Structures are given as structure tokens and as C-alpha cells.
Amino acid sequence: MTSPPVLDIRAVTKVYGEGDTAVHALRGITLTVERGDYVAIMGASGSGKSTLMNIIGCLDVPSAGHYLLDGTDVRGLDERRLAILRNRRIGFVFQSFNLIPRMSAQANVELPLAYGGVRGADRRRRALAALGEVGLADRTRHEPNELSGGQQQRVAVARALVTAPTLLLADEPTGALDSASTADMLGLFDRLSRSGRTIVLITHEDDVAAHAQRLVRLVDGRVVEDRRRTTGARHRMPEGAR
Amino acid sequence: MSALEVLRFALRGLMANKLRSSLTTLGVLIGVGAVILLVAVGNGSSEQIKKSIQRLGADSLTVTQSTTGGRPGMPGGRSGGQSEQSSGPRTQAHDLTAQDAAALVDPVNAPSVETASPVVTSPSVTAGYAGTSATIDQFVGTTPSYFAAANKTVASGSAFTGDDVTAAGKTVVIGSSLAEDLFGRVDPLGKRIDVDGIRFTVTGVLKESGSSSSSFTDPDSIAIAPLTAVQQSLTGYGGLDQVIVQAKDSGAVDAAEAEITEILNGRHDVASSGAADFSVSSQASIQSAVGESSRTFTVLLGAVAAISLLVGGIGITNIMLVTVTERTREIGIRKAIGAPRGAILGQFMAEATVLSLLGGLLGVAAGVIGSRFTIVGVRPVLVPSSIALALGVSIAIGLFFGSYPANRAAKLRPIEALRHE
Known about the structure:
The complex is a heterodimer of chains A (242) and B (421).
Chain A: E1 7-16, E2 23-33, E3 38-43, H1 49-56, E4 64-69, E5 72-73, H2 79-89, E6 90-93, H3 105-116, H4 120-133, H5 149-161, E7 167-171, H6 179-194, E8 199-203, H7 206-209, E9 214-219, E10 222-228
Parallel strand pairs in A: 3-8, 3-9, 6-7, 7-8
Antiparallel strand pairs in A: 1-2, 1-4, 4-5, 9-10
Chain B: H1 3-15, H2 18-54, E1 60-65, H3 98-104, E2 113-129, E3 132-142, H4 145-149, E4 154-157, H5 162-167, E5 171-174, H6 176-183, E6 192-195, E7 198-206, E8 222-226, H7 227-235, E9 242-247, H8 253-267, H9 270-273, E10 278-282, H10 283-326, H11 328-336, H12 341-370, H13 384-411, H14 414-419
Parallel strand pairs in B: 3-8, 5-7
Antiparallel strand pairs in B: 1-9, 1-10, 2-3, 2-6, 2-9, 4-7, 5-8, 6-7
Helix pairs in contact in B: 1-12, 2-10, 2-12, 2-13, 10-12, 10-13, 12-13
């Protein structure tokens, strides 16, 4: 393969605080995700999965180790460059949807394009296409409070997809949804995965993780399990994880 | 991310909370409106005072006695060619006399002087008529030429004559408000009023001078009687209070002033005593003195209004801080999806500036509309520079008071902002 892996995490640690009160959220994670992969990261609360997600999402920087997103080393990038990186390479889907209130679905989807500097007509076209892709072509003028939870989350997915990011990063995307909407949402992710999108999904529910092709389990800031569902084979623990 | 885009986000943010935005705008509106209106009121009242001084007549000069040579604090109170005088007590001060006044009317030595009217004044005299009494602010004793020199017009009846002055006739011409106070609806002509036990016959009523109540004394509460009669009954035969000189025309005022000084210097023996015992002031010099004090008044009003503008600005900071706290999560989302710091900073700065600019524009409108009405007897006169200044300051306030909350928003870290509930 000529193109670099989407995620290349090498011995990343994250420590909050100093001295005796220091909290080791990540104790050395090594993880590689190739293009088109569908990875579920699992772990109980306190396992460090939120910290890992913040680092993958370029919202935070590791204390030590290297993190290459799509071949770009994130270390040493200033805030402005991190913002550009988030805008171009990553599409976020949050547990609580995180749509901006009092803005129509279309305006919400257009927002990353606006920050990315895409002009009016092109922006509208791409936003409508993204909303069509998640099946909300008829709800473009609705504001978040006029949409159901499932629909809001689909708007959030459309917003994540609209910039054609290298990575779709979903943090407990079904955590606030009922079972019907959950099934709906997981179906959407499956479809996106089949169309070649790279997806990293963070969850603590087994049946959600079951949709992914690969499962990574975190305990106390370390990767304790990394297996591929289709093959069923367990990978050996990578070196840096110990 | 174009500037237009940032502005659109800002407007959308403001529209999301219309009541709050409009109340904040109101704060700035009041501040800007108050600055414009109060400065206009101050300006209007100073114009009014100027006008009422002008009513004295542009061609009249006032000669007053001064017991301490010259009058240092008084701009324009020049004493002829002799500039500063010693201001020590004087022993040889000459009173101004009716003869002085008569000497000023001299076609040879004072070609610029038209008339000179000796004036004695008795302040706050009580006059009575048929059981009613009223206080006369000024009881003036003078000669008939005073009416023209002081711009007093007789509306009904007639002024007294030179013969009345010679004969010390007890006739009086009264001001319009005095006529109203004493006589009400009764025609005052021919009636006799009682002034400190002496009876004067009213021969005429003056036209209303039109000065507003903003002047310190009512110019229409006046009674004008022959000089001799007033000296006889009220003031005694001491010196005159002033001599009102009317120049040939308004262009001859300066020449007249020089001539008066010349003549009086000679008559009062100033050359030997070394200091003038009188001062000559023209309307222009009084005007500049009054203008000075009314400017101070305007500045004071403006300062009070500026405080309210400042309060409006603090209102903006306050509301923007609340907005930033309230929308922390939104800021987090925007940052997570790649909003650069500048865009967030710009959005909140734009929100603050739009608030203050809108308030400023509405304030200008309110100030301009408000200045069309008469306020406490003063017709406000707009000062264009105050509009520009108030508007400029309101925009600056938006930028200045908005920058702190906007900076705080821009500095928020996305993870913490997202975690914020």
C-alpha cells in the first residue's frame, strides 16, 4: 500500500496532573488503522477510551509517543493547524448529537464547510448531498429541536461526512438513542463502511461493537484485546502495549 | 471563512436571543441618545442666552463704575488704552454721574456715540396695586433714550419724555410679566402703583422680551421710570449704577468704547490717580463671558451622558460574558468541527459590535428626534460632532468591551467546552 495508514498510534501515553496526583489515562497505546477499516474501541468507564478518542480526534495531544493522522504527525502542531486538521480529516459524531441549536439541519451540515472556506453554492450542494446520503433529504429546513433523536444523530453523521474526511470518529453514537434508532444508525454505519469509509467507533455496548470488523478493548489505559470479527483470529499483543 | 460569513454567524447568534439582545442595545441606545440630546440641550441653552444678550442691542455699551481699577476676571472689560491697573483699594474713585452721561453725547469728541443713558437700578422692589403686590426684579431709573439703547419696546401706552425726567414726574413703564402679576386682566395704563409708599402712574407696558425662563432673572419683571423720580424716591442721589451708551451703529462700537474711555479719563482725572475708576463693556465681551460658562455647562451635561454610555458598554460585556458561558458547548462543537480561533473571536466580537452599533444608530435617531422637542424651556440645537463622537464611541465600546468575552470564547479548549453542560 502506497498511502499511509489512517491512524498510526505509537506508544502514546497521556498523563493528567503532576507528581503524586498524576493520573495515567493512557499507559502506552500502539494502534494502526488502515483505510476502509471499521474499528470499535471498547472499554469500561475509566479505561481511557475518552482520552484516546480526544487524541485521535486531535482535540488533545499525547504526553508522549507519536500519533500520525493520515501520515501527518500531530505532535508540535499549533492550535490553528489542529483546527484545520480536524476540519479536513476528521468527522465527529458525538453521543449527545451536539448540533447547534436554532440552526437548520442544512446550516448545521454546512458549518464545517463554512469553516473550511467552501463557497456558497458548492457548500449547499454538498450539504444537501450529505443529508441525502443519511436519508434526510426532506428535513433540511428543520431545526434540531424539531427532529427526533435518531434524525438529529443522522444530521450529525451528515455533518461529519460532508467534508469527505479520512476518518469518521463516533463517540457512543447510539448512547442516547432508542433501540429502533440504534438499529437504524448501525445500519447507516454498516452502509458507510461498505462504501469504503474508515470508521472508528467508541462504545461500551457489545451489540454495537459487534457491527465492527475489528474490536479493540481497553483496560486501564492499555490495549488488552485486538481482534478481527470476520476472521475471528486474535492478534498478538503489540510490543508497546505492555 | 469570509468576514461576511462571520457576520452572518454573529447575527444568527443575536437573533437567537432577541429580548436579551434588544435590552443590551437599549443600554447603548440610551447612552448615545443621552450624549447627543444633552449636548444639544446645553448648546441650545447657550444659544438662547446669547440671543437674549443680543437683545440688548449689538450697538450698545455699558459703562459701570469700578472701585478696584479694571476688572481682571472679566474678559473684554478693557479700560481703554490702559491695560492692567493696580487693583488695590481706591481713595479717589469718582462716581459716575448724570453729567458724565451727558458729556458722552458730544458730536465733536465722541462722534460714534448716539445716545448715553444714565441708569440707576434698585433691585427687588415691592410694588402694590389694589391689594395685590409683586416684586419687581429691577426698578430702573433712566432717560428716554434708554428704551432704544436697551432694546425695550413699548407695546401699549407710551414711554416717558425728557420733560418727565426734568420734572421728576412719577410715571413708570412696566414690563409685561409685572403687568400681569399686578393687574391681571385689568388694563394697567393710567393706574397708579405703590412703590415703597410712593405712587407711580403707569404710562406704558413693554413688549414681552421673549427670553425664556432659563435666564436667571425674568427680564420682563422690570419697571422703568424717570431717573430723577427714582433717585428722589428709591435710590438717593448717589452715583449712577451704569451708563448705557448706544453707538451710531454696531460697527462703531469699538470706536465708541475708545471715545468713552477718553472722555471719562479726562473727567475722572484718571491721569493723576493712575487708574481708571470705570469700565466699559460691550455686548460682545459679556457674550464671551457668558459663552464660557455655558460651555462648561454643556461639557458637564456631556460628561453625565458619557457615564451612561459607559454603563451601556459594561452592559455589553456583561451580556457577552453570559452568552459565552451559555454557549460554551456550542463553541466546543464549532471548534471540534474545525473552527479556527479567529473565527470564534470574530463571531463574538461581531456580536458585541453589532449590538453597540445598532444601539448607537438607534441612539442617534432617538437623540435627533428628541432634539426636535423643547426640553425644560430650551430648544436643543444639535451638535454634528457630538453625533459622530457618540456613534464612534459606541462602536469602540463594542470592540473594547466585546474583546474580553470574545477572547475568552476563543481561548476555550474544545474538550472542556464539549464537556460543559
